Amino acid sequence: MKQKIEQLVAWLQEQVKGAGLNGAIVGISGGIDSAVVAYLIKKAFPNDSMGLIMPCKSNPKDQEDAMLVVEGSGIKALTIDLTESHQLLFSQIQDQLKGIGELNEKSLTLGDANLRARLRMSTLYTVANNYGYLVIGTDNAAEWYTGYFTKYGDGGVDLVPLVHLTKGEVREMAEELGVPEPIITKSPSAGLWEGQTDENEMGTTYDTIDRYLNGEEIPEKDREIIERLHRRSEHKRNLAAHPPKF
């Protein structure tokens, strides 16, 4: 794991240098994946790395956990509260759709959550532009394979250093990097609504997905869920589809 960390740090440095930029930025959510990325970019760019904390109708505990990551890694950090911006934009969108009688009430929860992710992406890139940084993603192998991320939200990034690491390997890396224990043992959640957890929403567990990705036997029910999620999310792992040249 120590060797993987060294290789990822070197890769991040190469990518930023190749882009002709100065450093890297990550959104710190208070979860383990963003914590690991924060520690990695701080190692790669001691004086040119930043963690952005972006509460948006968020659980205050997540912000406290994000600060634990900042303090533990020593990364420079900035907090930008997006709650008001989100409320304004989302209410305007709803009002316009109501006005033409076409508001789909059933899609509001998902629309609300995805808009939060996309506002965070826009905020990250605006701050990144200010410093000349690349935006670093936090998706691990399980999230990438199942499409458990918002297209052009937390999936809208420049680099995805954890994409080949299972959730278990991310935990191992977190321990090696010295990520605070409460972050490592925290139940994975995107913080989209009260009581929301990644595993409940996906219908399977990260450990089961890890076993699937490692070629191990898993229950048929879980295999079907994982493969369905993968098929349905294929568009998220590709750039915008284009027709052949006619």
Offer a quick outline of the entry.
The protein is α/β, with parallel strands linked by helices and 246 residues long.
How far the N terminus sits from the C terminus, by CA atoms, comes to 49 Å
- Order the strands across the largest sheet as they lie in space: 3-2-1-4
The SSE string, one letter per element, is: HEHEHEHHEHHHHHH
Strand proportion: 5-15%
Our count of helices gives: 11
Outline: globular
Beta strand count: 4
Counting helices, strands and paired strands, the structural category is alpha/beta
Rg estimate, integer Å: 18 Å
| Average pLDDT, all residues | 94
Query: Which blocks of ≥5 consecutive residues have pLDDT under 50?
Result: none
For the largest beta-sheet, the strand count, sense and barrel status come to:
4 strands, parallel
- Helical coverage, percent range: 40-55%
Structural overview:
A 4-stranded parallel beta sheet has the order 3-2-1-4, sandwiched between helices. It is built from 11 helices and 4 strands, in the order H-E-H-E-H-E-H-H-E-H-H-H-H-H-H. The protein is an alpha/beta fold and 246 residues long.
List keywords for this structure.
246 residues; alpha/beta; four-stranded parallel beta sheet; 11 helices; 4 strands; 7% strand; globular
